[in-house]
Amino acid sequence: MSINLELPKKLHVTIDQAHQAAAEIFRPISRKYDLREHDYPVELDTLASLYDGLAETGQAGAGADGGRSQKKAKPEGEGAVVNGGNMQSVLNVMETSWGDVGLMLSIPYQGLGNSAIAAVATDEQLERFGKVWAAMAITEPSFGSDSAAVSTTATLDGDEYVINGEKIFVTAGSRATHIVVWATVDKSLGRAAIKSFVVPRDHPGVEVVRLEHKLGIRVSDTAVIRFDNCRIPKDNLLGSPEVDTKKGFGGVMQTFDNTRPLVAGMAVGVARAALEELRRVLDEAGIEVDYDRPAADQHAAAAEFIRMESDFEAAYLLTMRAAWMADNKQPNSTEASMSKAKAGRVVNDITNKVVELLGTFGYSERLLVEKWARDAKILDIFEGTQQIQNLIIARRVLNKSSAELK
Amino acid sequence: MTTHTEPRDTSAVGRNPHPRNFIGTAMRVLTTVTGSEFAEKYKIREPINRVAYQATKTGFQTLGAANRAFKAVQGGSGEAKRLTTAPKDYFNLTPDDEQQMIAETVKEFAVEILRPAAHDADENAAAPEDLVKRSAELGITMINVPEEFEGAASERGVVTNALVAEAMAYGDMGLAIPLLAPSGVATTLTNFGTDEQQRTYLPDFAGENVPQSAVVVAEPKPLFDAFDLSTKATRVPSGYRLNGVKSFVPAAGSSELFVVGAQLDGKPALFIVESDTKGLIVEADPGMGVRAAGMGRLLLQDVAVPESALLAGDADAAHAAYRDVVRLSRLGWSALAAGTGRAVLDYVIPYVNEREAFGEPISNRQAVAFMVANMATELDSIRLVTLRGAARAEQGLSFAREAALARKLTIDKGLQIGLDGIQLLGGHGFTKEHPVERWYRDLRGAGIGEGIVVL
C-alpha cells in the first residue's frame, strides 16, 4: 500500500455524522451557553440518546475511548494498514469542536477519563467501567505541568484504597459519573508510585467544592474536587498495582499519547471554524483567495488566509499522523506532542487573526469568532502546554533525559 | 483536456460544506424543543430523549548546446500515452516497497556522491560533469517514461517523484536540480504531450544518455506571477514566435531541450524549444544559492517554433497542462525543501549535543532545545502537506490548494529551518566550514523556484 493522505470512505461517514450534531445542535446553542456559564446544556442529553441509538445500530463513531471498546476488524494479512478507532475519535473530536469545543468537552460518556480507562484498564475493568462518564483529575493546587508532583494519596486499607487530597481543573468534574484520579500509593517511591483510580463521583468522601469561572469553554464545567477519606475497592486501581521503580511513570503517562492527538483535533476543529468564517467574509467582500498566484501578490487578507490555511493543513496532517500511528501500533509520543504543539499555537494564531481581520464586527458577541479566540487559549494549555510539548519533542529528537534537558 | 485533475478544489477549507441530512434535521428539531422553556415547564424533555434514542439507531553568454538531433516522429496513432493511478481507500504514510527501495537508493547516492561534491560545486557554480552520467544509472528519469517508449512507468508516480526529490536534496539541493530537471521534462511530456511530442522526445529520456533539459517557467521580474507571463508567444503562419527572458534555467549552458512558458492569447502555455533554435541565447545567472545548478537565463528573440511545439496540442489543453505543471513543480520545490531541511536538522542535532557552553552541552538549555523541536515539527509540516498534494495529484484529485499551502510552508518554515540551523551553530554557522549556510541559501531559493522539478 503506497502513501495516501486522503481518508477512506468509512471515515467520511464518521465525519458527516459528527458534523450533523456540530452544525445542528452545537452551533445554535453555542452562544447561549457561553453566556450562561455553568448551566447544564440539556440538549446534550438528546445527543447522548441519539448516540446510544446509533451505537446500537453500529453507526456511531468511536468516542474518546479511541475505539478500544469496539471490536476492530483485524488487518488483512501482513503489512495491512489500519484506519481505526484513534483516527475515528480524532475526526469526531475535530468535527464536534468545529461546532463548539466547550460542548464537545461536555458530551456525556466521552470524557478524557474514558480515554485513560481505554488506555490502561484491564479487560475486566473495561467491562466494569466501559459504560461510565469519566472525568480526569490530575492537577492539584500546588502543581500543573509537573505531573510527578502528585500529593493526593491512596492508602491501602484491607480491600480498599483510602484517597485523600484536592484536585483542580477537573473537566466535566461535576457532571461526570466517575472521576479518574491520579494519586500516589507511596510518596517516598516517587513517580513510579503514581497510579490512577476510578472513583464514582457520588461516592462518600467526594465533594465538588466549586466550579471555575473562565475565559473560554464556559459551558464546560471545570471543577475543584476534594477527596476526604474516600474509600474505594482496590480493584478500582487502573493497570498494575505494583510499584515498578524501573518502569516508572510510563504507565500513567501513556494515556497522553492517546489524548494529545485528541486535544490537537479540538484545536484543528476550532481553527477550521474560524477559517471558514473568514472565507465567508472574504467572499462577501469580493476578495478572492487564489491558490495559483503567489500569496504575496494578493490582497493582504487573502495572503493571510493562505498563510493560516498552510499552518492549519500542517496541524491537521500532524494530528492525523499521530492517530494513524496509534491505530497501527507504532510508538507515537513525539508525533503526538508535535501535533499538540503545532495545533495549539495554530488555533490561537488563526482565531485571533480572524478577530483582527473582522474588526469590531468579529469582536462582537453577534458572531462566534471572539468566542473561538477565547476558547482557543485553553487548547494550548491543557493536556500539556506548548512548552511541555516542546520539551517532550526536544528530548526525543535530541535523545536527552529529563535530567539533562530540564 | 489532457489533464485528469478535478477542476475544483475539493479539499479547500470553507469551500466544501456538509449539507444537512435527515439526522441533522432531526437533531435540530429535537434539541430546539429539548432546550426550550416549554419542555422545561411541561417536563417533556425525558420523553423526547427517549424518542431520540428510538428514532435513530551557471559568466558566459552562448548559443544553446546541441549534441543531438531530435527527429520529429509523425504518423503515430494520434493517441498519447497517459499514466493513471487508481484512487486509494486508506490513509497511509508508509511508502510501498518500490517507493521505499527507490528512495533509499537515491538517498545513498545523495549522501555518498552529491554531499561530498556540494561545497566545490557551490563555489564553482557548476555541477561536476560526470555526475549527470552517474545519476542516469539511477534511472530517476526513466521511471517517468511509459513502458511503450522503453521507460519503466506503468502508473503515475507523483509521490515517488516527491520522495526522489527529497532524497536528492538531502545530499545537495543545488546538484539535485539539474539531475532532476530531465525527469521533470519526461513527466511533463508523459502527462501532457501529444502523441507526436511523446514519440519525438520521450525515447531519449528512457535511455542512458538522457538529454539535459528543463521545464522553464520563471522570469526575472519582481512580484513574478507564473500565471501572468511577460514572455509572449505570437502566432505566425509556420507556428509560433517566442520573445522574452526566462530565468532559473538549470545547467543552462549544456541543455539540449527546453519546455518554455510563454503567454499565448492572454493565457500561459508551454512550448518545446530545442536549444539550437535560432534566436535562443543562454546567459549565466548565478544567484544566492542553488549555485551548483548552474542557473542561467534564456533570452528568446524571435525564436520560431513549429505549430507542433505547443505542449498538449491546442490552446485550451495547453493552458490546463501549464496549470498542472506549475502546481506539480511547486510540490517539487517543497519536496526539495523537505530534503534540505532534514539535512539541516540531522547536522544540527549532533552539533548542539556536543558543543559545550557554561560547562554543559548547549542542547541542555531550552532556548536551544526548543528551536530544534520547532525545526523538527515544521519540517514534518512541510513534508506531510507536500505528500498529501503529491498523493492527490497522483489520483487525479484537485491539488492546487495543497501545492499553494506546501509552497507557503516552504517559504515560511523552510527558510526558518535554514536560519535557525545557522543560528544554532553561532559564528561557525556563518562560515563555509559548515554546510549549513549553503543549505540556508538553498532553502531561500526553494520558496521562489518555479518549474524544473515537475513531479
UniProtKB/TrEMBL annotation, chain A:
Name of the top EC class for this enzyme: oxidoreductase
Residue ranges, annotated region (Disordered): 59-81
Cofactor: FAD
Keyword Transmembrane helix part of the UniProt annotation: no
GO-annotated molecular function: short-chain fatty acyl-CoA dehydrogenase activity
InterPro entries, per the entry: Acyl-CoA_Oxase/DH_mid-dom (IPR006091), Acyl-CoA_Oxase/DH_mid-dom_sf (IPR046373), AcylCo_DH-like_C (IPR036250), AcylCo_DH/oxidase_C (IPR009075), AcylCoA_DH/ox_N_sf (IPR037069), AcylCoA_DH/oxidase_NM_dom_sf (IPR009100)
Annotated Acyl-CoA oxidase/dehydrogenase middle domain residues: 135-230
Homology family: Belongs to the acyl-CoA dehydrogenase family.
Protein name per the record: Acyl-CoA dehydrogenase, short-chain specific
